Amino acid sequence: MSDSNNFEKKYKDRAKKRGDEASLVRKIVITILTILLVIIIGGGVSGYLYVKSAMQPVDASDNSEIAINVPMGSSTSQIAEILEENGVIENSLIFRFYTKFKNESGFQAGEYSFSAAMTFDQIIESLKTGKVIRDPLFKVTIPEGRNLEQIAAIYAESPNTNFSEAEFMERANDEEYVQSLKSQFPSLLTDEILQEDIRYPLEGYLFASTYQFYSDNPSIEAIIQKMLEQTRDVVVPYKNAFEDKNMTIHEGITFASLLENEARSEEDRKKIAGVFYNRLDEGMPLQTDPTVLYALGKHKDRVLYEDLEVESPYNTYQIQGLPVGPISNFNKNALVAAAEPAENEYLYFLASSEDGTVYYAETLEKHNKLKAEHIN
To answer: What is the pTM of this model?
Structure first.
């Protein structure tokens, strides 16, 4: 065979080999692209089906009531998590995206009764209007200025509870139980409530309010949980204000309990808060009579000089600074006064024995003069 024929044959063989290789590469590329396309389509379909499923009622046939508490100040994310945790919705993330897509907001705090059969739109409508689907079975009002023993008595006397005052107190003071509450409310409850000299760990921490209950005979634990949630929602927003004054949450609550028992009006509470801060700055004892009564453990119409001698970490006539803990619960304006006092130069104040008007003085001499004029 001639050289030209050999060259032609080798050229054809190489061309055929390159063609076969190119064909194989095309087949591999097409196969890979097909697989990727199937995966993408399959993923998209699966994602669509998952989202669609998450937007459906958890169980359209289950209309049993699920009691939900939405605390004050809850964000949409927090509400979504509460709903998911209680089985009202399937997925909190999908619910958040849904509300954002529909530009829904303005959800209100409160006690709700939902069910697993409700749609997103039904849930959103309830949260927006604040409409509670069911009425509470009963309410209990805890007034301001009440100590733990008085609060226990109020609940024990309710016809809708099934425990005694002693049982409430025993549970509220159980150290293991209090430790568990600390874990649930780390922003509110600290080791300070378990100091050796503290009379009752939860004293001052059960907020004054009207509480609604949706089942008969609520447990002591359920009641305390509800009250601590309210306290947390009111107190924690002022944490930074207290820290700016080098005070802890516990000290802030203690301060508020003193103001609650010293004056009735919001204006006087702010002024007296200013007096107390001035006395603390001067290294003077606070000398507030309500702490003496708490130290004595009884109510008296008038504090006598001999009462001032009682030895107690609560008696501000015998100690420097704040008492070891709160002496009662408080109104929100007492807490605000403790966090945002009125600035003044006063070091003394007294309430008239005739009409309760509060008079202020910068000096002891002026204070004694006012005492002679207004105290019988």
So the answer is: 0.68
